Amino acid sequence: MPRDGCGHTLLTPHSGTLSSKNYPGTYPNHTACRWRLRAPPGTSLLLAFGDVDLEPSERCARSSLLLADPQAGTAYGPYCRNAVPATPLLVTNSSAVTVLFNSTSHRSGRGLLLSYATSQHPDLVSCLARGTHYTQEYVSVYCPAGCKDIDGDIWGNPSQGYRDTSVLCKAAVHAGVIADELGGQVTLSREKGITLYESAFANGLHSKRGSLSEKRLIFHRACGDALEVAAFNASSWWHEVDALGQDRAWAAERAALGTAGHSWAAEPGSEATWLELDLGTRRNVTGIITKGSSEQYDYYVTSYRVSSSRDGKNWRPYRGSGGQEDKVFEGNADSHGEVSNAFIPPIVARYVRVTPQSWHQRVALKVALVGCQLARVRAPRPYVPSVPKEVPVPTSHPASHTPIPGVALDSEKAGSTLLVMLLIGGFVLFCSSLLLLAFLCRRKRKPAAELNCGITKGYPKLEPSQVCSLQSLPPPDSLLASFPTAAAPGDLSRTHSPEYAEPDLVPVSPCTQAGPSTFKPLPDEGYALPLVVSHYDVPGKYHEYAEPLPPEPEYATPFSEPEPAGTRWNPCGITGLPGSPPARYDAPAPRPGELPAGCAAPRGERTAGAGGDVPSPEGAGCQLRDCPLSHVYHEAL
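Predicted structure:
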């Protein structure tokens, strides 16, 4: 049978891809092709129909596709446009299938695209499967060999990801996840799309620049980190002298990919040029990235070979998955772009050498390697059968133990019972700690919250089993202004507030002044300083209240002595006769060298009087609340 109708064909023992001639264009007239597919013994074949577009006719007489198993005598088809396969994946029970394609005169039709794999890969997909065909977040499929040269667009690059409209298997080859010669399992995730997908050239494929998409495809590739290069070495390097007479060294150290400026360049006219990278120790190398000189110089390498060594002396060329010929990698197409190529299978070596095969104007190169550390494989220990040790039985104790009545221990449930007991005990301890913490917090907040002070007519009211101190109340301005400063120097707010006995309630006079009392009045808005007319009157600088009670269990009681009507002091105010001078009174002077109890030395100026020097009201050192003689007066002579 003629084979002029065969198109792209790549057949391997585990997977492959085939198509009609000119696919996806119109297949030619009067052509035929036959493919024989074989799987390893013990396996069967799976056929994935990517596209079957043959011109329809009665019983597919003009163009047809037929699948036959000569050994079993079974056949599938014929297929054409009006008789397509029922499912996109055909499962056969044979390890060998013959594919027959023929065409006569026709006007239209793209032809056929068919892929296959063994029964070990039930998740086989065709080369035309796209990311938009899936809805789950994580996708794992098996891509057949030969999808690289099948027509299909991809947008993006390995670092950014790919647009979800890209064909899966071709994008996987571009990302370096699988080799087109072998195919393989692909794992990817569908994530949120980005605004712009940049193009890149990698593994012989050029992707397109794409716009915003709903989802993007991220291929999961193990062992793809940048490797650190310990040293660079080269066959030669170019020593340039520019037009101004300045020297520029294109040394091997300039070959690092991240180096700014010019790159490494070989000496002009040198033969067998190479660039060597020393990784310091053996690494698992899975890919290489190359770049030209720079934008200022238009030097770059278009193709190269790679060899590796473990000791730097014996070199082994890289031959790829085929293993027959040295693989030639596609290099750069300009001096500033980066090109990636994957090593499948990876290289395990310390030294990697790049040998340029073709270049533009001059051999100039920047290189970076990707991979990971070499996994350490521990040698398995030889199996030594364990011999049970004999446990000596003490002779001083009886061999049998007396069982405890009512207790039965199950050895299988002992572990679970102990775990339950530990959990219960831990829960009890946790609850106890929480209760104790709550009690302590409540106890700290309780004294400040339960204090209650009641004031009835300007006097503190003591609740049962409570002591209310005036220090807990904010002192108003009237109270702060009425405290004396002469008898007790310092800040009275920092002294201890004394406790006073509870007085009987005293009716308030009509002139809003409380009656005479020996108890310290509360700060009240109606309390005011007495009016002072004469300097012998009660000084208005201090309040009239008794000193704090002594610590003995004796308490002072209120007292009031009857005074003559002519000598009673009117708290509401004292007015003098018009035209008459104010009367002067003689006050008994204290004994020489002795002051009454609780009196302080005079601080102010003294004025001359009838009975001697009399202290002025502003400088009085003995006040009404401190000196017991200040309430004794004499009639004027």
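Summary: Residues 50 and 126 are 5 Å apart (CA to CA).
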